[in-house]
Amino acid sequence: MAEIVDEPMDEDEEYVPEGGIRIGDIYIPPPPLPSLTFDNNGPRLIITHIENEFFKSYAGKQVLGPFHKSFTSIVGPNGSGKSNVIDSMLFVFGYKASKIRSKKLSVLIHNSNTHPNVDSCRVAVHFQEIIDRGDDFDVVPNTQFSVSRTAHKDNSSYYQLNGKRVQYKEVANMLRDKVEVESISLMKPKGLTEHDTGMLEFLEDIVGTSRFKVPIELLSKKVEELNELRVEKLNRVKLVEKEKDELEGPMKAALGFLRMENEKVDKTFRQRSRYILDAETNISKATEKKIEIEESVSDLTEKMKEVNDKRKEKEDEIKEKGKSFEVVQKDIEELSDKFKKFELEDTTLREDLKNTNIKRKKVKQLAETEKAKQEKLIATPEENKKKIDECQEMKAKLEKKVDEEESNYETAMASLKTDTQVFQDEKAKHESKLVDLKKSVNEAASELDLATNEHEVYISAEVKEKNRLEDLKTRIQTTKESVKDKAAKLVELEGTIPVKEQEMNKASGEIERVTGAAEQAKERLRVMKYDYEEKKSAQNASKSGGRVHDAVMQQKTNGNIPGIIGRVGDLGGIDKKYDCAVSTAGGGSLDTILVEDNETGKKCIEFLRQNDVGRGNFLALDKTKGKYDRNMQHIDTPMGVPRLFDLITVADERYRSAFYHYLRDTLVADDVDQATKVAYGNKKYRVVTLTGELIETSGTMSGGGRSKMTGKMGQQVQVVDKVNPKEFERMERGINEVEQEVKDCNKRRQELEDLLYKGKKDLQEMKKQHGKLKVEVNPLKEQVVMMEKQVADQEGRVKEAAPDKKVVKDMQARMSAAQEVYDEADGNAKVVEKEVKACDGKIKEITGGKIKSVQKKLDEARKQLDKIKSEITRLEVEIKSATRNLKKCTEKVESLEAEVKECEDLMRAMTERRKIIETDGAQLLEESQQKQETSKQLGEAIGKLKKEADEITKEENTLKSSRIEVDQQLQKWDDAIKDNSKKVSYWKREMKKLELQDVPGEELVPLAELTNEEILAINMEELNYELNLIEEKLAASKPNMAAIADFKKKEEVYLERVAELDKMTAARDEQRKHHDDLRKQRLNDFMEGFAIITGKLKEMYQMITLGGDAELELVDSLDPFAEGIVFSVRPPKKSWKNISNLSGGEKTLSSLALVFALHYYKPTPLYVMDEIDAALDFKNVSIVANYIKERTRNAQFIIISLRSNMFELADRLVGIYKTYNCTKSVTINPHLIEEFPAHSQPNLTQQTPAKAAHSQPSLVPTAPLPLGESNGTNTVQAMEVS
Prior knowledge:
Elements: E1 21-23, E2 26-28, E3 43-53, E4 61-64, E5 71-75, H1 83-92, E6 120-133, E7 136-139, E8 145-152, E9 157-161, E10 164-166, H2 168-175, H3 199-207, H4 213-296, H5 298-419, H6 421-543, H7 547-558, E11 564-567, E12 572-573, H8 579-586, E13 593-595, H9 598-611, E14 618-620, H10 621-624, E15 649-650, H11 656-663, E16 667-669, H12 672-679, E17 687-689, E18 694-695, E19 701-702, H13 725-800, H14 805-962, H15 964-993, H16 1012-1016, H17 1020-1036, H18 1042-1105, E20 1109-1114, H19 1120-1123, E21 1125-1130, E22 1137-1138, H20 1144-1161, E23 1166-1170, H21 1178-1191, E24 1196-1200, H22 1204-1207, E25 1212-1219, E26 1222-1228, H23 1230-1235, E27 1246-1247, H24 1249-1252, E28 1276-1277
Parallel strand pairs: 5-24, 5-25, 13-14, 16-17, 23-24
Antiparallel strand pairs: 1-2, 3-4, 3-6, 6-7, 6-8, 8-9, 9-10, 11-13, 12-15, 17-18, 18-19, 20-21, 21-22, 25-26, 27-28
Helix pairs in contact: 4-15, 4-17, 4-18, 5-14, 6-13, 6-14, 18-20
């Protein structure tokens, strides 16, 4: 037997049963349940019948069955198609073509003389579940289903479940664990490949441990992967540990540097405390001296105070009067403004009044015109009615006159008949003669036409051929001229097209050159404009630098104070992106004026003080020289943000220390989030954002607001004093020239593009015409040659068509004679016609003069009548139009009158408003005059008070001059107090700048305030020496400050990777445990089932062979899954042998013993066997047959057999036979056949497979059908009777 191998339609999809367990993403299905048990009370699956349609030897639709629920045997002669029954089942159950004794699926399609060209074959297996009731059974409702498979000639196939097309997986799900037909006699101990099946795989599928194979492999793979990852993690931990150890030395050096800096800060704090105490002592001494001087001049001070008070009183009075004066002046101005508004309104009203009056007059005039028109329209209907009546009277008269004239005309025509009677008689005579002559003319014309037609018919063939010849020659000439013209045009185009293409290529190249030149010019223009604007803005910034800055820079320009460098912000440049950041971080310090040394700064301050210009800030460059050399070096910043100081380009390297003096290590962040992360990290930094938010090292944050600080520093260094006006003029000329160059390039490019567009269009048309001519010329030349050949042929035809000259001559003579007769008759007829016409002329002469006057009167009367009728119609239309227009005219008159009234009302309102304005204006003038009088009085009073105040001021100046000497002394001590106060403020600010560095791992002790005694006890010389010594050490050392942060980061990374390693180790150990547990469970389950199967195998073999022995042996007892299982057999009275070394019969018995043992372990509802008894003797066939008969109580056996002692025990026989090379079948019940006498045979009804599976047919009186033959309808012969 061969094992059924599933062939899923979609290999990516896998059937997963319910239940089971899951380890992570690995699913372990539950052990498979047996399809049935040995108990007969449960449902089981059976095959009811099989439908073969053009499958192999089965032609048409052949139904096999119905099969018995227990034991059915298929019998028939060799070659009849018995084995095709099993092949049909294998085909439906998913076997490949090679397993069905075929190379490909198309071979399975029936092919015979009667059915030679069949496109497809189909097999349907019908199933149902039943419940045994002894020999009978009950069908489980709704369990019938059919599985079919159809194959086509293109080797494609598809499955159907209950007639519905499905994928194979659904068929596999339906039949899983229900159909097992196994071949075991030649099985190897273990499959050689993954897809091969050996004894081990076969038993594992039966026991159910094969479900562990894939999960165990997956878990093993996972363990290997996790182990590899763990090794990788371990290597990473070792690498980080090595890097951490390498950073430990530089980290310790950096920590020592930080401790030394903190020591320097502590000593500097003590030094500056002493400076502050000394300055405060000096302030106390100067204050005491100042008090002594002030007490000695108390009288002078009191007198000056008294005079000062008087002066202030006068000034207060002047202020009060001035306020009143200002109020009065304000009132006068307000009154003046109101009066001006009234004047303006009055002017406007006068103008509006004038315009409204003009409008009123025009509208009034229009209204009068419309009224006149209205009156005319009212009178029109009446007038027109009168005119219509007059016209009606005239119409009646004219109609009467027309009647009279018509009567006169008829009378005149009757009177003329007697006057023309003579000529009419003569005319009748000539006309009678003319009739005879006309008859002769017609006869002669007929004779002439007959002769002419005969002549033309006789020579028509020749004329026709000559015309054809002439036409052919004409066409040849025309075609030659056409070919000549087109060929000339083609030659011309072949020369013109390359030239045109060359012009286009040249234009394209020139466009590229012009475009490149334009782009270069634009780039030069952009650079020139940028330089010009930068220098211009720098010049303007220098001009608007403030009063103090301008005055100081003027001193530099004049050479009065050498050593002035310039404003700090002007000495450096920065990218525009950082404009707001540097302006915010630098603030007012960028407006500080940089000088060479302290002396220059003092001179500048003295200059400002003497000239009372204002206050200014100065920085001595020599004070910063060498002070920040180490700090200005590159530093590592958090997150890689730039340091603001590094972004500045300076005019001279000497000035870098000045910028660092103010900006220090300020960092630039993109936004507030980044600034926050940088500022509040392990080390605190001063950070500014691109939009102007600033975070100090103390943690305070500033920013926001509508306006941003910008413009403190330009994009390049401003060297304004080197740019003169001529340079600007030169730059402007250069910019204008480049702009003109760009315009010229653009203009030229546009011209070239237009030329290129037109040229391409013309070139395309030329190529199109060239192609057309090229196609036409050659056919025309061939046509000329062909027509020239036809000329000779046509000339031959003309000769052949030439008529007999003698006959033509006779016909021409006859035509001449007929022509002479016709000419003579026609001449005589024309003479008589002249006579008739002469008579007509005389009759018209007589009648013409008399009729003409009567006709003229009649025409005039009719014309007058038509004119009167038109006038009546016009008058009637005019009446209707007048009625319609009268309504419109009335509405327009009313509208115009209303508009006139509106204008008059508006004029009256404007006149009233003017009167009000005049009254209010007079009141304003009067009030304004009163205010002006009051203003005059206040001005006089203020003048008087100013004179008195001037006198008091003179007295005060006299007293001040007396105190100048005293004030000079006081000023001296005030200056001393101020200078020392500044020192105190300066050193206090400097002390605030002192900051202790945070040393990682150590507690930061803040600077403690010192008492005066502690400060005075400080030895300044020793302290200064120590400070210098520390500064030298700091300058000499170059620690890597980033090593601290790097070490900390590496330590964090080290700890993280150690944690990852621990986590990975735990994950690997967990998966390893799952793997070992599954392997153990697989071994235990397999060994348990294996023991049962091998024990039952021994029992079955001994029973079948009556004394033999058989067993399943593990090749490797320690690992059953390594080498597989060997099937060993000891036939009766023989030695142990492997099953592959047995004879055919012994192999069959061994295999059957194993099948029966497996049936005991895991009962299967269906067994299909093909000639298992072929190699067995009579005794063994009987043993096997009786065992199968016994076991069929809970399973269905379908066995192909030719041995009588096998099929005689069957419950139903299916006979297979062939007629005309086509297989047919018949089904009988042998037990019912035995019940009938040998001399009689009943006629049995035919039933459909569905009914025959569970019903019993009754006898019907039909024609006898011999047992074992088919009725040709492919239905089953049911041989059961009740």
